[in-house]
Design a protein that fits this description.
- The chain is α/β, with parallel strands linked by helices and about 450 residues long.
- The chain folds into 2 domains: about 220 residues, P-loop containing nucleotide triphosphate hydrolases (Rossmann fold); about 210 residues, Nucleotidyltransferase, domain 5 (2-Layer Sandwich).
- Helices cover about 35% and strands about 20% of the residues.
- The strands form 3 sheets. It has an 8-stranded mixed beta sheet with strand order 3-4-5-2-6-7-1-8, with helices on both faces. Strands 13-12-9-10-11-16 form a 6-stranded mixed beta sheet. Strands 14-15 form a two-stranded antiparallel sheet.
- The protein is elongated and about 85 Å long.
Length: about 450
Amino acid sequence: MADKIVTFDRPQPRQQLFFEARAAYVCYGGARGGGKSWCVQHKSILMAARWPGIRILILRRTFPELRENHIRPMRKLAGAMARYKATDKTLEFVNGSLIVFGYCDNEDDVDQYQGQEYDVIFIDEATHFTEYQFQTLTACVRGANDFPKRMYLTCNPGGPGHAWVKRLFIDRRFRAGERSEDYVFIPAKVTDNRVLMEKDPDYVRKLDNLPPGKREAWRDGNWDVFVGQYFTEWDRDKHVCEPFQPPAWWRWYVTMDYGLDMLAALLIGVDDNGGAYVVGEVYEGRDLGDGHDGLIVSEAAKAVRELAAGHTITTYLAPPDLWNARQETGKSVADIFAEHGVYLTRTGNDRVDGWMAVKEWLKIQRCEDGVERPRLRFFPNCRNIIRTLPLLQYDEKRPNDVANTPHELTHAPDALRGFCVYRTAKGCEPPAEQHTKLIDRPEMKRAIKKRRTR
């Protein structure tokens, strides 16, 4: 067995980092061609040889992918060390170790692993798995023994699991019970794979020739641009701006999406050139996970009033479903908001038209002041709309619509959609005598000077 291990190809530098990582969750990849499958194959066999009796699970989304990418090459790689049993889809090693090959073609397929115990799980192409599937599998990593307990993930940007992988390993936004030290990301690009570069030097050229979006995701491992992304117009460098003190004469809007699962409200100012700035947000509800409760209407109204404090709001925008009367009281959610001082205006609810309107606001264009920029920009403190908007993907069944899953990602964009589809009015600078005292304030002088030089 030792002779067999010595004959393995040596890992390249990035792959070596993957082999040496000891965190509970290790994620490798980002771009195409970084040697992800090689890592899974060699790491799993080495662990099976090193730890007699260890139980390892290797997962892909479909069985054909599993067979071509792992079962066939690993049978050859393991040689005399292990015997493959086709009926069980397992590699049984002579030292008692076991590698199980599994797949989760549908969301509920992961339930078959509940109650099973594995010491190590490899999820190849993890962004093809949903967060529910990932969380279900984490509970399977256990055992009363001294074997390492880890999950290894490989992936590229895009797919139904893009958001949760990005949250944990790229943005490192952790929820209650998640420890930062448990999560390690090892980025790898095709240029890190010397073997591939030597054997197929044209592969980089092929990546360079991919269409925009796919090229940045597959060649560069860019997690803000990926296959299936709905708002390909998004560019953080262009859409997120430095905060400033807006002039008092701007028109102000609050637009919202509300339910017990989430209140997402945005404070948006429209300047005198027709441009808009998202300057504040409220984002609270059950969809954020443990420790977060939904806000009842009175609490939501209070949060909206606090968001709007200090601004004269032109219109509070909300989706039409808030006007549905409740059978037991005869009142609608909009009625209850009004009782608590927030008077809502119904905005459009056509999803496709609404998303097209958002795209128009996001695209780079020549504005009325002659400067090329997006009409809609965001202050950096609006973290949730900045986070969720670029993560939205196309709906597979309605190609012009946004996918409703993962649901947590949809709330703030739905609120923004309500604003973008509404016929807003520009801010209008009043005559000088009406605001002389206002613009004499030092912070207003700075704001006006900065606005006129943008």
